[in-house]
Amino acid sequence: MPGPDSIVFLESFYEPLAANLARTRLEAAGIPCFLSNENLVSLLPLYSPITGGVRLYVRQRDAEAALEILHHEPVPLATEPDVASFAADAPDPVTPRCPRCGSSDVAWGPATRNTYGFWESVLSVLLRFPVRGHRYHCFHCGNEFK
After folding, report:
1. Phi and psi for 83 in degrees, rounded to 5?
2. Distance separating alpha carbons of residues 71 and 57, to the nearest angstrom
3. How far out from the chain centre does Cα 74 lie?
4. What is the CA radius of gyration of the chain?
5. What is the 8-class DSSP label of residue 58?
């Protein structure tokens, strides 16, 4: 039977930065904690959903207080877009909504599917490298749109 000093899983984060913010917030409140999968997710961010993200652990006796601290003021899950870092071909930094599902969880970047025309496909074959345009990608439904 687990005792008050046993280690329990508390929360999972998609980004290592958000997990470190939560860890720092708990340590500032005097609650000892640690993270797992931080280096794996930092090096290979695509593995984050497979591994369960960056996981935060605390002692059993501190779990309720830690949840209260984390849920009192939620840890931001992502940073706001930096207007100066946008490329010249990037659209307005105000994130639009997905036309299919209405989610605002979208990002601008290289298309993940073959969304190019005839000349781009010829160039891709000649270069042996996929030439893809930039599109918005919805992380909720997987839709890509301009």
Report:
1. -60, -35
2. 15
3. 15
4. 20
5. E
